[in-house]
């Protein structure tokens, strides 16, 4: 049974935070899905990941290609994950349900602290997932470094 980790972005945008989290997840040996709510935003993230530093190459693909099942990191809007991930990173309010949290090793929910509707959406996701018995942690970078601010055990 996995856990949901909520990342409240207040000091760096998702395009800076996501590569760091992807690196940690890949370091754990996990295959990953980056689930977005908007295709244009996923295309933007795809481009940002390709344009990262050479020493920080992030192997990934945007869903819809011939090799989706082989991708170590697959960017998609869908709940159909042919790469069999152990981790899902949800961006921009993309929905992840308790079933996904329970069958994966980790679900990461990244949200922009400057966007009031994103904060409200994340609060609703926290309430829904913890209410369904999922373990969850809330992380904030408000102090300048990542700190765990809350935890709910399963």
Structural commentary:
With 154 residues, the chain is of the alpha/beta class. The chain has one domain: DNA polymerase III subunit chi (Rossmann fold), CATH 3.40.50. The chain is 31% helix and 26% strand. It contains 4 helices and 8 strands; from the N terminus they run E-H-E-H-E-E-E-H-E-H-E-E. Strands 3-4-2-5-6-1-7-8 form an 8-stranded mixed sheet, with helices on both faces. The protein starts with a strand and ends with a strand. The mean pLDDT is 94.
Give a short synopsis of this structure.
By secondary structure, the protein is an alpha/beta fold. The chain has helices spanning 14-27, 39-50, 98-103, 116-131, and strands spanning 3-9, 32-35, 61-62, 73-76, 87-90, 106-112, 135-140, 147-152. Strands 3-4-2-5-6-1-7-8 form an eight-stranded mixed sheet, sandwiched between helices.
Could you outline the blueprint of secondary structure elements for this entry?
Elements: E1 3-9, H1 14-27, E2 32-35, H2 39-50, E3 61-62, E4 73-76, E5 87-90, H3 98-103, E6 106-112, H4 116-131, E7 135-140, E8 147-152
Parallel strand pairs: 1-6, 1-7, 2-4, 2-5, 3-4, 5-6
Antiparallel strand pairs: 7-8
Number of helices: 4
- The biggest beta sheet, please? 8 strands, mixed
Instruction: Spell the H/E element sequence.
Output: EHEHEEEHEHEE
- Give the number of domains: 1
- The CATH superfamily bears the name DNA polymerase III subunit chi
Structural class: alpha/beta
Strand content: 25-35%
Mean pLDDT: 94
Output the strand order for the largest sheet.
3-4-2-5-6-1-7-8
Shape: globular
Give the CATH topology. Answer: Rossmann fold
Distance between the termini: 9 Å
Mind telling me the C-alpha Rg? 15 Å
Low-confidence stretches: none
Number of strands: 8
């Amino acid at each position: 049974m996995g856990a949901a980790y909520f990342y409240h972005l207040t000091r760096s945008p998702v395009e800076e935070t996501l590569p760091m989290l992807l690196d940690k997840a890949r370091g754990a040996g996990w295959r990953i899905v980056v689930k977005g709510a908007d295709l244009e935003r996923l295309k933007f993230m795809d481009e940002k990941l390709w344009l990262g530093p050479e020493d920080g190459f992030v192997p990934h693909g945007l869903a819809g290609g011939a090799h989706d099942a082989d991708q170590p990191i697959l960017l998609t809007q869908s709940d159909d994950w042919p790469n069999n991930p152990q981790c899902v990173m949800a961006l921009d309010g993309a929905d992840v349900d308790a079933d996904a949290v329970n069958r994966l090793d980790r679900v990461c929910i990244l949200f922009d602290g400057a966007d009031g509707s994103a904060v409200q959406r994340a609060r609703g996701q926290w309430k829904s997932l913890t209410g369904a018995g999922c373990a969850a942690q809330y992380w904030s970078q408000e102090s300048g470094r990542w700190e765990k601010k809350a935890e709910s055990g399963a």
